[in-house]
Structure to design on (432 residues):
């Protein structure tokens, strides 16, 4: 493995993979943090803020390692604050606007149900640096999915109003889930090196988790396999630019400023 | 002139055991289990610290407190290292520290209740959380989970159905 990683092409693939992990956590963490001070009740506000905090913490680890692997002296902060939208590698799902509370939780659940098995697989990565970050993050994400699944069920199997909102959220978000399981050359390279699972290998487990929760939530899985894609290769919706405008403002206006 | 004698590793551990956690000051950073190793690299004291949660905002404060305490004891050459592996677990919080948490009003971790993402346990959780979490105020086992998340990343929100007080539970990871 060490020999493989020493070649430029595999370093580039590993860098790409790490950006994808880090950017998913960063962009979703930012989206979820938008709820701070706005959630329907105090406990939910705190829970969302904690989830966002975990994700931002994981971002620092993934992007920190990405910068180290790239070897150009870029820190996690450089990567978060000084890249433009086309250089971001997150799934389109995580950059979509929050919508209402139910839609935020539905998006969280659809992501968590993928994130947890991904991290479990990465905890056995052939790259010990990847494995140790995943072993840390997996403990946090186990609580994320526990909570998001609980709330999808409570709201889905709730009032007529909450049920209708959750079904609408599911219908709208569903076409954005297929991107989680697509592969390109970078995915194939890291999978071949035993660094990460092949994305498609996570699909069945994800479907099982989602189907069980949706059934309990009395929600109907949308038909159709159409998948919006592009985020993982830098082709984003217009929403990401607005996120970055807010998130990166300080570093753009006052370059190099630190706390 | 002889160089000043370096403090022993055991002595450094004792000093660190007097450094309180900034968010839960009734227990020390050693009792919390986040100091993973104290050793010398030549004449440089190396202290390895692990974060509780990856985004815990107290991490920088803890490093600062540890450094200030050791400098206060005259340590000149010091290096703090972040150690991620093995990941921090509440199993490292010993019985004495758990009792201190309880007396402070935080229900201590109940072993074997970490979230593992398995949905089979969901029904049990929804029907009122884990009965083994005792109210830190009145001791009642009749408690309910309000949320997996609380006032800091390491805690969950509970309420007691006996004395009706809300409380923090130091959740297992």
């Amino acid at each position: 493995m060490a020999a493989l990683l020493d070649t430029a092409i595999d370093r580039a693939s590993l860098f790409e993979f790490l950006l994808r992990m880090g950017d998913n956590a960063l962009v979703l963490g930012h989206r979820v943090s938008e709820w701070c001070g706005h959630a329907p009740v105090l406990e939910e506000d705190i829970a969302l803020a904690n989830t966002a905090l975990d994700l931002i913490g994981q971002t620092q680890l993934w992007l920190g390692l990405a910068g180290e692997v790239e070897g150009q002296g870029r820190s996690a902060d450089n990567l978060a604050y000084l890249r433009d939208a086309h250089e971001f590698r997150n799934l389109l799902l995580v950059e979509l606007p929050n919508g209402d509370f139910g839609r935020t939780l539905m998006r969280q659940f659809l992501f968590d149900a993928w994130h947890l098995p991904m991290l479990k697989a990465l905890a056995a990565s052939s790259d010990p640096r990847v494995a140790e970050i995943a072993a840390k993050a997996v403990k946090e994400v186990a609580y994320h999915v526990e909570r998001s699944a609980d709330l999808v069920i409570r709201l889905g199997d709730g009032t007529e109003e909450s049920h209708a909102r959750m079904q609408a959220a599911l219908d709208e978000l569903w076409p954005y889930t297929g991107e989680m399981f697509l592969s390109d050359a970078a995915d194939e390279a890291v999978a071949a090196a035993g660094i990460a699972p092949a994305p498609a290998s996570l699909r069945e487990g994800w479907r099982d988790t989602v189907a069980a929760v949706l059934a309990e939530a009395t929600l109907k899985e949308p038909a159709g396999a159409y998948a919006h894609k592009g985020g993982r290769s830098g082709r984003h919706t217009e929403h990401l630019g607005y996120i970055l405008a807010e998130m990166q403002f300080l570093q753009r206006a006052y370059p190099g400023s630190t706390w | 002139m002889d160089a000043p004698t370096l403090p022993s590793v055991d002595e450094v551990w004792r000093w660190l055991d007097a450094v309180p956690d900034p968010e839960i000051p009734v227990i020390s950073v050693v009792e919390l289990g986040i100091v993973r190793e104290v050793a010398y690299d030549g004449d440089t004291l190396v202290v390895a610290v692990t974060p509780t949660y990856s985004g815990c905002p107290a991490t920088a404060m803890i490093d600062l407190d540890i450094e200030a305490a050791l400098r206060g004891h005259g340590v000149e050459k010091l290096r703090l290292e972040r150690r991620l592996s093995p990941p921090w677990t509440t199993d490292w919080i010993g019985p004495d520290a758990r009792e201190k948490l309880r007396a402070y009003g935080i229900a201590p971790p109940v072993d074997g209740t970490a979230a593992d993402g398995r949905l089979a346990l969901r029904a049990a959780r929804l029907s009122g959380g884990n009965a083994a979490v005792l109210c830190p105020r009145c001791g009642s086992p009749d408690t309910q989970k309000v949320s997996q998340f609380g006032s800091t990343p390491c805690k969950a929100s509970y309420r007691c159905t006996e004395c009706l007080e809300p409380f923090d539970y130091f959740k297992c990871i």
